[in-house]
Amino acid sequence: MTRRLINDSGHDAEEVTVTILCEPDAQLAAVLAAFIGDGVRTVDDLASAAAALDAAPSETLLVIGAGVDLNATLQFASACIRMSPAPR
Between 20 and 30 A from 38 (CA), which of 4, 11, 19, 21? Predict the structure, then answer.
C-alpha cells in the first residue's frame, strides 16, 4: 500500500510503501493491518519478516508489533542495517 505524505508546508513529501507487518498475536496483527490498510503482508516472527524482506527488496518499511521481543527486534534491526546500510 502506498500512502502519500504531506509535509508541514502542505506539499507532497514522499511516498512510503507499507506492506510487511510482523506481529505474533493474530488478533493484534489483524487490528494493525486494518489500521494500516490494504496490501499488508502479515508475518508472525522475525525470521519470516527477513524472508519477506528478501523476497521484496524494494520494501523499505517493516512494522514490528508490540508482541515481538524488544531485544530480538533490536538485533534484527542491527543486522538489517549491517546488510543494507543507508546510502550516503
Answer: 11
Number of compact structural domains in the chain: 1
pTM to 2 decimals?
Answer: 0.72
CA distance 74 to 81: 11
pLDDT of residue 55: 86
Asked if residue 80 lies in contact with residue 57, where contact means CB atoms within 8 angstroms, the answer is: no
* pLDDT score of 88: 58
Q: Is residue 13 in a domain? A: yes
* 8 Å CB contact between 53 and 62: yes
Domain hosting residue 47, numbered range: 2-83
In a domain, 88, yes or no: no
Q: What is the DSSP string of 4-52?
A: EEE-TTSSEEEEEE--EEE-S-HHHHHHHHHHH-TTPEEESSHHHHHHH
